[in-house]
Amino acid sequence: MDAYGNLGGLLSKLIACAIDNKNIERFLDELSAYSGGVATHIFGHDFDRNINLSMRYSGYAPEAIDEFTDYYAGKNIWGERFVQAQPGVPVSCEWMAPSEALVKSEIYNDWLRPQENLYSGGGVLLSNSANRMFALGGNIRYRDVERLHGPWMRLLGVLAPQLHSIFEISRILQGNSLAQFLASTARNDTAIVLTSNGGRLLHANAPAQRELALGRFMWIDMLGKLKFVDEEIGRSCRSGGFGRNLGTLRRAIGENGKKVEYAVDFMRVDASHIDGTQYWALIGGKEIFDVFIVRVLKDVQKIENILRRKYELTPREIAVTLDIESGMSPNEICSRDGLSKYTIRAQLKSAMTKLDVHRQASIPRKILEISDRNSDRESR
């Protein structure tokens, strides 16, 4: 399995999930096959939108799932720490509970081990609040841990933003709550834009209207069509490959000397799949319309300043830290920068010491915490 390979089949199944949550099982079957045999599951709820997925799964025996929901869910040794993870950041089963504790637990000996020794794996929280929680996870048989664990964790990292957007889009398509959802997004910075197949603006929520006025990422031209500062986004949508599937493009732009990283999620929707006259009023009677979700991921310049001033990282330590946070490996950094692996490891070790981070895998979570704290201060 190549976690960065062709995800076309998986993304096609994801689109079907947005249209109808009943298609989640098909996605999980595809995901299990793509991952090389990881037993996969999604669970969660959204009380505000009356969505309750319960436990959807692939690769587990149905009777085992019944046993889990009836009894072993309360004995889940991984669950307590999993819900403390940062949404969007994959965590391993080892992070949730060390192997030494796992093998002594009731759930392992009486539920996981009889299922071909489902010993390891990992998961990612997609969202986590009192009224809304979704998560994707997978368990790996002991005999397959060495072969599948690393690729599975990388695949989770690739799929997490895609799945987050699927649930956002699914909220848009849920019954009579469409208008309320679009209005509710005014409370955050998620910009949602609906356009015709030809790019003409049909609807923009409040955050999207602010972004259109600012013109940082996108604007409306004289013909009333949506345009992006990064022309590749428009080209990708028109080319069909990106436009037929949900896709995410991550970009960093300069704004008054500051770098801002943002992501654009896109999906083309066939309105014939959607019931309810309120949709037709919103989308101008178009049978095909496009959904764009624009999210500011992080202000890179502000994070660099915090790393330099508060944590006293050197410019090279900052660069290596942010490269690791973005998903690069030390070897990839060595190849790109033409430096020895010993130099990169020394820079990384020094940065981790200053950040009080003990594992390389914890760097993304640390950067997210820094970004969140900075955002909280600015919102006060």
What does this structure look like?
- This protein is of the alpha+beta class.
- It has 3 domains: 8-172, 2-Layer Sandwich (Beta-Lactamase); 177-299, 2-Layer Sandwich (Beta-Lactamase); 310-379, Orthogonal Bundle (Arc Repressor Mutant, subunit A).
- It is built from 17 helices and 12 strands.
- It has helices spanning 8-19, 24-34, 62-70, 79-82, 93-96, 99-102, 106-112, 145-172, 178-184, 206-214, 231-239, 277-282, 300-309, 315-325, 330-337, 341-355, 363-379; strands at 39-46, 51-58, 91-92, 118-128, 132-141, 191-196, 201-204, 218-220, 226-228, 247-255, 258-270, 288-299.
- The strands form 3 sheets. It has a 5-stranded antiparallel sheet with strand order 2-1-5-4-3. The protein has a 5-stranded antiparallel sheet with strand order 7-6-12-11-10. A two-stranded antiparallel ribbon has the order 8-9.
- A hairpin with a 5-residue loop joins strand 8 and strand 9.
- The relative contact order is 0.09.
